[in-house]
Design goal:
3-stranded antiparallel sheet, alpha+beta
Length: about 70
């Protein structure tokens, strides 16, 4: 798994699109959606018919949790 998760320039209220989330996690789309189904990854927020986003703080917390699984 990658160690450089999210750019420092993102604000706390930024919304990430799927390619950014996949890049931060270092996984493929099919693995990510399977993880959502199993409850490992957070589900998206739908902001349109074809637009899904994830808030930066939720992804940052997920990355911290994945980096430190015992905590």
């Amino acid at each position: 798994m990658k160690t450089n998760f999210l750019p420092e320039s993102l604000s706390d209220n930024a919304l990430l699109r799927l390619p950014s989330v996949l890049d931060a996690l270092g996984i493929k789309k099919s693995c990510f959606y399977a993880g959502i189904k199993r409850g490992i990854y957070p589900p998206p927020i739908k902001v349109g018919d074809r637009v899904s986003v994830w808030p930066t703080p939720i992804i940052a917390e997920l990355l911290k949790r994945l980096a430190n699984p015992g905590e």
